[in-house]
Amino acid sequence: PSPKSSSSGAIGNPPKSESVLMTSRDGITTITLNRPAKKNAITLQMYEDILLAMNAASQDDSTITVFTGNGEYYSSGNDLANFTDNPGGLKLSEDGNLPLRKFVDTFIDFPKPLVAVVNGPAVGITVTLLGLFDAVYASDRATFHTPFSSLGLSPEGCSSYTFPKIMGPSKAVEMLIFGKKITAREACARGLVTEVFPDGTFQEEVWARLKAYAKNPPNAMRIAKQVIRSSEKEKLHAVNAEECRILEERVLSEECINAVLNFFSRKARL
Amino acid sequence: PSPKSSSSGAIGNPPKSESVLMTSRDGITTITLNRPAKKNAITLQMYEDILLAMNAASQDDSTITVFTGNGEYYSSGNDLANFTDNPGGLKLSEDGNLPLRKFVDTFIDFPKPLVAVVNGPAVGITVTLLGLFDAVYASDRATFHTPFSSLGLSPEGCSSYTFPKIMGPSKAVEMLIFGKKITAREACARGLVTEVFPDGTFQEEVWARLKAYAKNPPNAMRIAKQVIRSSEKEKLHAVNAEECRILEERVLSEECINAVLNFFSRKARL
Amino acid sequence: PSPKSSSSGAIGNPPKSESVLMTSRDGITTITLNRPAKKNAITLQMYEDILLAMNAASQDDSTITVFTGNGEYYSSGNDLANFTDNPGGLKLSEDGNLPLRKFVDTFIDFPKPLVAVVNGPAVGITVTLLGLFDAVYASDRATFHTPFSSLGLSPEGCSSYTFPKIMGPSKAVEMLIFGKKITAREACARGLVTEVFPDGTFQEEVWARLKAYAKNPPNAMRIAKQVIRSSEKEKLHAVNAEECRILEERVLSEECINAVLNFFSRKARL
Fold this sequence. Notes:
The structure is a homotrimer.
Chain A: E1 20-25, E2 28-33, H1 44-59, E3 64-69, H2 81-84, H3 99-109, E4 114-118, E5 122-123, H4 125-128, E6 135-139, E7 143-145, H5 159-167, H6 169-176, E8 182-183, H7 184-189, E9 195-197, H8 202-213, H9 218-230, H10 233-250, H11 254-269
Parallel strand pairs in A: 2-3, 3-4, 4-6, 5-7, 6-9
Antiparallel strand pairs in A: 1-2, 7-8
Helix pairs in contact in A: 1-3, 3-10, 5-6
C-alpha cells in the first residue's frame, strides 16, 4: 500500500509515495507510475498522489514535466477495484463532483510543457489524457486501448472533444465507442502520438531529445504553451464537466455494474 | 420508379421502397442505396426514403446503423436530373428551406453509432456526409470525389466545417474547391476513412467486425455518441444552415445552370 | 534595397518592388519573394510590399493566387535585422498594434483560393502562415522550421490555433514550442502540406495542376472559400490579436534580446 502524501504540493515538497515517484534533473521533472506488479493501475490514493506531484512540478524550477510508467506497462488505467472498494460504487469529492473532474482539470491547466513517455501498453484514462499532453513519445511496444463501452462507461479525459479533433471522428469513435485497440504506429499516424521509437533504444533516444528541448528559454516555452492552450481552455473545462456528469450516471448503470462484476468473476476463475 | 413510402417512420414500419432498402439483423440495421443501374444516384424520392429509413433505424432495437450501396458504386451522389426535373431549378420544402437542410440535420442528430460501408466510388453529398459518420470502412476500389466547383456549386453536408477539421484546410480545400478525386488509401491517411480493406475480402471482414461491435452494451454506445456529438452539435446545425443558404443562391447561378446544361448535352452526345 | 511601392493596391497597379514580384497569367496571380541572396528573409519593407501585392491580387481578375520564393529557399522568415534596425526593438503601427497583426489579418481575409508553392526550406512566419492557405504544394527539398522558443519568441500567424487543429497538439507543440524542424514528407503526413513532389519535376507538375484548377468557375471557388472560412474567421482574428499581444511583450523580454544578440555575434564570428 502506498503511504499517504505528507505534502500539499508546495515547492520542494513532492508527495512521499511509493506508487507515484517524482524526480527532477536536467531541467526535467519526471512523475513515474510505480506499481508494476499491477500494470501501474491507478488507485484512488494514486490519483491524489499524482495531483500533488503535478502541483509540485508546476511550481518547481524545471522547464518540462514528464509522465511515464515503471516496468512493462505505461498504465492499465483506472483500477477497477476503485468501483468495488466504494460501497455504492461511487465516491464523490467534498464539492459534490467526481474526483476525476479535478484530476482532469489539473491536466487542462498545467502551465508547462507536459510530455508523455509511453513505455508500454496504455489503457483508459491514461490514453484519453494524452490528448491534453504537449508531446507523446511511444515505444513500439506501446498499445492504446479505451474499452469504455464494454464496461458500460463513457469517454473521459476530454477525449470526446480532443480525439475527434486530433484524428477525425471516424477514427476517434472506433477507439472511444467501439473500443478498438491500436498500435503505437497507428496512434502516431492518427496524431495522438508524436513519434514512435524502437523499444531497444526508446529510453536513450527520448531522454536525449528531452534534455535538448529543456535547454530552450523557460519563459518562452511556458508562454507559448499558454498561447496555444488559451484558445480552447474554456471549452476543455466545459467538456470535462459534461463528461463527468454523464459518467456519474454511467457508473451506477446496470450495464456498468454487470460489466465490473463480470470482470472480477472472470479474474476469480483464473 | 421507386414506390412511395407508406410509413411515417414508426418502429417496425420501415419505408417500402425499391431504391432504398432497409434490413435488420445481429443488432445492425442496414440502409442500402439500391439503384445500381444509375450508380445509386439519389433522386428526390430517395432523399425522402432515406429520411424515413433513418427515422425508423433511430427508433428500432438495433445498436448500430449501417449505410451502404448495392453494386459497383457506393453512390454517384445527387442525381443531376433533380435540377432539371424541377422547373425553376429549385424545389423548396414547406418551411421555405432546401430539403437538403432537413436531410443533413437528420445525420447530425442521429442518436446511434452510424457506420458507412463504402463498397465503391462515392461522389458529392455521399462523400461530404461521411464527416458526420462515426466510422467509415472502405473497399480499396472506393474513390472520393466532390466536384462542386466544376458544377458551379458549393460544399454541403457540413463538409465546409468537418473536412478542414478532419484533414486540415490544405487537404480539405483541394477536395472541396479544386475537386481533386482521392483514393480510399488517401482518404484513410487523411482521416476521412477509418480503415481500408482489399475489395475481395471487404464485405466479410467489415461485417465480422461490425457484428462484434454491435455486442457492446447499447446504452453505453448511444450515450458515448451523445457525449462526443454534444460538443459540436450546435455548430454543425449552424454550418448546415449557412451552407444551404449559400447553395440556394448557387443553384440559380449562371455558372451552375451552364454546368448542368453542359453535363446533359455531353451525355446526350454519347 | 527594394524600391518603395508606388501603388495603394488598386487593380492593375501592383507594387513596384524588386524583392516582392507580382505576375499574372492563365488566371493565376503569383507573388514571389525575390531576395535569394538573403534566403528570401522578409524585411519591414517587404511586409508592406506583400500587403500591397495581396490587395492587388484580391481585386484583379485572376481566380487563384500563388505564393512562392525565388532561388533555393522558400523563405528564411522574418529578417532578424528587423529587431536591431529599430531602436527599442519594436516598431508599432499607427494604430498602436504590431504591423504583424494587419499582415496576418490580410491572409485570414483573403477572398480567393491561396496556394503556397514551397520551393525550398521555410522558416518562422512563412511556415505558420501555411495554416491559413488553401493548398500547400512542396518540393521534397523543402523543410519546415519554427524556432520561436530558442529566440525567446512565441507562435504567430494563427499557428497556436491552426497547427493543433491540423496535426493535433502532440505534433504541433513539438514544432511550435520545441522547435523541431520537419521534412516535407512529415509535413504532408501531418496535414500541413497538401502534396509533395520530387524537386526535379516540382515546378512542372505543380503549375500544370494549378492551371487546370484555375479553369473552374471563379465565383464558385470564391464562394466555396468564403463558406469554408466563415465558420472560423472570427476565431482566427481573435487568435491573431492575442498572439500579437503576447509577442509584443516577448520581443522586449531578456530571453529574446539575448537570443538575437547571440545570433548576430555568432554570425559576426564566422
